[in-house]
Design goal:
The chain has 195 residues and is an alpha/beta fold. It contains seven helices and seven strands.
């Protein structure tokens, strides 16, 4: 079984969402690929339990029982019937939070989901200390009291692995440790973070 999970393409099953073996859901064979396309999730489980490098992502192995607990949480409490790959990705990331996975393990889960191409596109979040918007939610401009984060720390806290944090020009005099996989981009000039 390990061989089938680690190399689904050897059995004409996809190992990622954009594999040439992936069967589009509109195809009437195999109820839209419900069994055949399980190779994507099989590869994901293999990466999480055994670790490997795939599609440019290096994933380290997790404890088998931790991965089993993750999938149990997803199946019993989070995933609904008819869910697609985006819902699976969202459920997996939420289950990791629910189970108290640390940031290192959540980053590893993100890399595994990137490898099999089910991770959702990154969100664009914004930080602008000069906006003064009373309700910071990460949107680009202050609109009806809702706007960008006021500190980089707020932005990091509101981001999930893979997100892009756009930081407006200036000095953000705050201690900073960023452990999530994020892309930081400056807006309108140089940015200094730290004390």
């Amino acid at each position: 079984m390990l061989f089938r999970s680690s190399f689904p393409t050897n059995f004409n099953h996809p190992d990622s969402l954009f594999s040439p073996f992936y069967q589009q859901p509109s195809n009437t064979n195999d109820s839209g690929g419900v069994h055949r396309n399980s190779g994507v999730n099989n590869k994901l489980c293999y990466l999480l339990t055994d670790g490997d490098t795939f599609n440019g992502q290096t994933v380290y192995n997790n404890n088998l029982s931790a991965v089993a607990d993750l999938y149990y949480e997803v199946q019993v409490n989070l995933l609904t019937s008819g869910a697609g790959w985006t819902e699976l990705y969202n459920a997996l990331t939420q289950a990791a939070v629910n189970l108290g996975w640390g940031i290192t393990d959540r980053n590893n889960l993100y890399r595994a989901c990137l490898a099999v191409e089910i991770a959702t596109p990154p969100r664009d979040l914004y930080v602008d200390k000069s906006s003064g918007c009373p309700i910071p939610t990460g949107i680009p401009l202050c609109v009806v009291n809702v706007g960008p984060y006021l500190t980089v720390g707020q932005g990091v806290a509101g981001a999930t692995s893979g997100d892009v944090l756009h930081i407006r020009i200036g000095s953000y005099n705050e201690p900073m440790t960023i452990e999530k996989i994020l892309t930081l981009q400056t807006v309108n000039g140089s940015v200094t973070i730290g004390q």
